[in-house]
Specification:
513 residues; alpha/beta; TIM Barrel; 2 domains; 11-stranded mixed beta sheet; 8-stranded parallel barrel; 25 strands; 27% helix; disordered N terminus; non-reducing end alpha-L-arabinofuranosidase
Length: 513
């Protein structure tokens, strides 16, 4: 027996050093604050609210007579939660809904319902909502089924003075002062639900809309930015056609952005479960989400060919996870739960945007409330914050901060034949000079320790938050809304190094002090 035990002990001893090294050896990270990169535009943290499912009705709008606490029909609890995120912009009214939207039916005292759309939440209500949460408006005009005149009059209604008949109409509807429209989307997915247009046909339409639609506001500090429809995923036809036209543009039209839509699905059509999934499904979706980096590189290379000065921003105005609808929900409402896996995907996406901040200067996660990878879920008078919401809240210090390069060996995490980087991290310096570090541990089984060398940074400690969960498929429910919630995290700096350990499948954000 003793001999057998000794043999087993020897075998274990031979294997143990490798196992400990693989799981526990600190990841060596070097931060160099003396070599700042691009500004991580706050608009990278934009949101998206489409007239889809209960994203608007029940999610934002409950009506002025509702027993749910509201201000002019808009939920107070949702407004408070979004204000805490410092939401920079909200894209509305779509999505595919935008290219069938008739703004006329959604203004004035007598609304004209459409099929499945009461139009009680229209232009004035959206602008009130934007004002309440302190965000800028990103409006998508109907380029698919509408006309340039329809869109031009919509902008005139919103932005002109009362010298205009449409400005007078707006004033009669309760808002004498012109609205500010910061960003204008010239259509949506025109290659598909927005009209099934070829790239060249879209370019011709887009140029007309760009010329005739303008903001009349004289009080805006910034001119309205126009975003053209761009690609979905790897297809490059729209990128090539729009950027080639932009490069040869005349005085009569211009754009400031080109959109990109990217969803992590684990394979089309969306079929992956939003709850009760295993580690393999966790890894499959993460691997799919990392394709975003390649998509950005592909389209940025084409944009660089026509726009080496990077005047036109790449605007990822739809991104996130798209899973199978929650069982029992209306499939058309795109309802899905939001798990710790979604939180990790959100962090990886933000990190990718930060690394490409010179070209990617705006993004809108899909969607804000009750649809796809939502920040917030509501059920009548109840509201909960999702793991994705918590990630966006933790990353608030990165808004308009300057990218600081990190170098590290990400290592590998492998499960069921799927290999991923084990760890991801980004850093930035805010306007006050404080350095922030965000770490994502993709490994679903093991914690990871990072040893960060702080070149050019004087600090004695770091503090912030970490978001972890009992399991990768842990979710917040109305009965248990805090199953996945941030917890305080702190670490000391010794000999110019910050050592932090983060849990499996978790996200951490710390500020150096």
């Amino acid at each position: 027996m003793r001999l057998l035990i000794s043999a087993a002990a020897i075998a274990a001893a031979l294997m143990l050093p490798f196992a400990v090294h693989a799981a526990d050896a600190p990841v060596q990270v070097t931060l160099d604050a003396s070599k700042p990169g691009a500004v991580i535009d706050r608009h990278l943290f934009g949101q998206f609210a489409e007239h889809l499912g209960s994203g608007i009705y029940g999610g934002i709008w409950v009506g002025k007579d509702s027993k749910i606490p509201n201000t002019r029909g808009i939920r107070n609890d949702v407004v408070a939660a979004l204000k805490a995120l410092k939401v920079p912009n909200v894209r509305w009214p779509g999505g595919c809904f935008a290219d069938q939207y008739n703004w006329r039916r959604g203004v004035g005292p007598e609304r004209k319902p459409a099929v499945g759309e009461p139009n009680t939440f229209g232009t004035d209500e959206f602008m009130d909502f934007a004002d309440q949460i302190g965000t800028e408006a990103y409006l998508s005009v109907n380029l698919g089924s509408g006309t340039a005149m329809d869109a031009a009059e919509w902008l005139e209604y919103m932005t002109s003075s009362t010298d205009s008949a449409l400005g007078v109409e707006r004033a009669k509807n309760g808002h004498p002062e012109p609205y500010q429209v910061a960003i204008l989307g010239l259509g949506n997915e025109s290659w598909d639900c927005g009209g099934a247009m070829s790239a060249d046909f879209y370019v011709n339409e887009m140029k007309r809309f760009s010329h005739f639609i303008r903001s009349y506001s004289a009080t805006s500090n910034q001119p309205m930015k126009r975003v053209a429809v761009g690609p979905s995923g790897a297809d490059t036809s729209y990128t090539e056609a729009v950027m080639k036209a932009w490069n040869g543009r005349s005085w009569s039209w211009d754009i400031e952005g080109l959109s990109l839509h990217f969803y992590a699905t684990g394979g089309w059509p969306p079929h992956m479960s939003d709850i009760g999934f295993d580690e393999k499904d966790y890894a499959v979706l993460l691997k799919d989400s990392l394709r975003l980096d390649d998509a950005i590189k592909t389209h940025s290379a084409i944009m660089d060919k026509y726009d080496p000065e990077k005047k036109v921003a790449l605007v990822v105005d739809e991104w996130g996870t798209w899973l199978a609808p929650t069982p029992g929900s209306d499939p058309g409402f795109l309802v899905q739960q939001n798990s710790q896996r979604d939180a990790v995907v959100a962090a990886l996406g933000i990190n990718i945007f930060a690394r490409h901040a010179d070209r990617v200067r705006m993004a809108n996660i899909a969607q804000m409330i009750n649809v796809l990878q939502a920040m917030i879920l509501t059920n009548e008078d109840k509201m909960l914050l999702t793991p994705t919401y918590h990630v966006f809240h933790m990353y608030v210090p990165f808004q308009d901060a300057t990218f600081v390069p990190l170098t590290f060996d990400a290592g590998t995490y492998t499960t069921d034949g799927i290999t991923l980087p084990r760890v991801d991290a980004v850093a930035a310096k805010d306007k006050a000079g404080k350095v922030w570090i965000a770490v994502t541990n993709l490994d679903a089984k093991s914690p990871v320790t990072l040893s960060v060398s702080l070149a050019g940074v004087k600090a004695t400690k770091a503090s912030g938050q970490t978001l972890s969960a009992p399991k990768v498929d842990s979710v917040n429910t109305f009965d248990a809304p805090d199953t996945v919630a941030p917890k305080a995290l702190s670490a000391k700096v010794a000999d110019g190094k910050l050592n932090i350990t983060v849990a499996p499948a978790s996200v951490a954000v710390l500020g150096l002090e």
